[in-house]
C-alpha cells in the first residue's frame, strides 16, 4: 500500500471530510456529493463516531475513509471509499479491519452495512471479511401528486408503528435515527401510519407500517407533501413495496444488508 497511515477522522474538519467523502465515490455505481452540512446531518442522525471512524493518508494526503456508527453493542458502516487513484491496493480492507478493531474496543458485538448489488468488488471484500447476507433492501422513489395527507402527531404515528411493524428498521430509519431528527410529520389512516420528513420538496418516508391497502392510501396522500417521495432501504417483503409499485414508484437502488459478529 506504500506509505499509508490510518488516522482518526477527527483530524479533518467537516468541509475537508465532506470533500474526501465525495471524492471516494467518484466513478462509483451511484456517485454522490456530500457537503459539510450533509456530513453534520449524517453524523448526528446516524451516530457516526468521528473518533472511531478512520481516514487513510498516503504520503500525507487523505485518500480513503470509513465511517463507523456506534449504538451500544451495535455498529454500522456509514460509508467506505477510496479515491480512484488509490484503489485496488488493499486500502478498503485495511480501513474495514481498522473499523472492526475500533468497534471491538468499544464493546460492539455486531456490525451492519448495506452494499449495492452491482458493486461486486465490495461484496467480495465483505464476504471475505466474514459478513453474511441478512436480507435484500431497495431504495424507492415516487413522483409527487395530488392527494390529501392525513397528518397527525409524529409521536402518535410512531407509537402505532412500533406496535404494528413486522420488519426490523434499517439503521438509517431506526428509532434512534428518528430521535435525532426534527421537522417530522406523522401520517395516519385506519390500518397504517407513517413518519416522514420534508426537506426542499422531497418527502422522505422514515418509518411506515400497516397492511398493503391502507399503506397505499397513506403513500398516495404523503406524496402530495412534496415534489417527490422516497423510501430508503425498504425490505423486499414490506407491505409498502406493492403499494409503491401500484402508485408508479421506481426502484433506483438495490442493496444487500449484511452483518458481521465480532
- What is the β-strand count? 12
Q: What fraction of residues sit in β-strands? A: 35-45%
| Helix and strand composition category | alpha+beta
Helix proportion: 25-40%
| Mean pLDDT across residues | 96
Architecture (CATH level 2) name of the largest domain: 3-Layer(aba) Sandwich
Q: Regions with pLDDT < 50 over 5+ consecutive residues?
A: none
CATH superfamily caption of the largest domain: Gcn5-related N-acetyltransferase (GNAT)
Distance between the termini: 26 Å
- Tell me, what's the shape? elongated
Largest sheet, described in full? 12 strands, mixed
Which value, in Å, is the CA radius of gyration? 19 Å
What is the CATH class designation of the largest domain? Answer: Alpha Beta
Strand order of the largest sheet: 1-2-3-4-5-12-6-11-10-9-8-7
Indicate the CATH topology of the largest domain: Aminopeptidase
**Which H/E pattern describes the elements?**
EHHEEEHEHEEHHEEEHEHE
Q: How many structural domains can be distinguished in the coordinates?
A: 2
The total count of helices amounts to 8
Relevant terms:
single chain; 262 residues; 2 domains; elongated
Task: Tell me what the structure shows.
With 262 residues, the chain is α+β, with helices and mostly antiparallel strands. It folds into 2 domains: 105 residues, Aminopeptidase; 121 residues, Aminopeptidase (3-Layer(aba) Sandwich). A 12-stranded mixed β-sheet has the order 1-2-3-4-5-12-6-11-10-9-8-7, sandwiched between helices. A hairpin with a 2-residue loop joins strand 2 and strand 3. The longest helix is centred in the middle third of the chain and has 15 residues.
Amino acid at each position: 500500500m506504500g506509505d499509508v497511515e490510518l488516522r482518526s477522522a477527527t483530524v479533518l474538519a467537516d468541509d475537508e471530510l465532506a470533500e474526501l467523502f465525495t471524492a471516494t465515490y467518484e466513478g462509483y455505481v451511484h456517485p454522490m456529493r456530500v457537503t459539510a452540512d450533509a456530513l453534520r446531518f449524517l453524523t448526528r442522525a446516524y451516530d457516526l463516531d468521528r473518533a472511531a471512524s478512520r481516514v487513510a493518508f498516503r504520503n500525507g494526503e487523505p485518500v480513503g475513509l470509513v465511517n463507523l456508527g456506534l449504538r451500544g453493542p451495535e455498529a454500522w458502516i456509514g460509508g467506505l471509499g477510496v479515491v480512484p487513484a488509490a484503489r485496488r491496493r488493499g486500502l478498503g480492507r485495511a480501513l474495514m479491519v481498522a473499523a472492526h478493531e475500533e468497534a471491538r474496543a468499544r464493546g460492539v458485538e455486531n456490525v451492519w452495512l448495506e452494499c449495492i448489488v452491482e458493486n461486486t468488488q465490495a461484496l467480495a471484500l465483505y464476504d471475505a471479511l466474514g459478513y453474511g447476507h441478512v436480507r435484500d433492501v431497495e431504495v424507492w422513489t415516487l413522483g409527487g401528486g395530488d392527494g390529501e395527507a392525513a397528518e397527525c402527531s409524529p409521536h402518535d404515528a410512531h407509537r402505532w408503528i412500533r406496535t404494528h411493524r413486522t420488519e426490523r428498521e434499517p439503521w438509517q430509519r431506526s428509532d434512534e435515527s428518528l430521535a435525532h431528527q426534527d421537522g417530522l410529520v406523522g401520517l395516519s389512516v385506519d390500518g397504517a401510519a407513517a413518519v416522514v420528513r420534508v426537506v426542499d420538496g422531497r418527502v422522505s418516508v422514515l418509518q411506515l407500517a400497516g397492511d398493503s391497502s391502507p399503506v397505499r392510501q397513506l403513500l398516495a396522500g404523503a406524496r402530495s407533501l412534496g415534489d417527490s417521495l422516497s423510501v430508503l432501504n425498504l425490505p423486499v417483503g414490506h407491505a409498502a413495496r406493492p403499494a409503491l409499485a401500484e402508485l408508479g414508484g421506481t426502484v433506483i437502488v438495490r442493496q444487500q444488508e449484511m452483518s458481521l459478529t465480532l
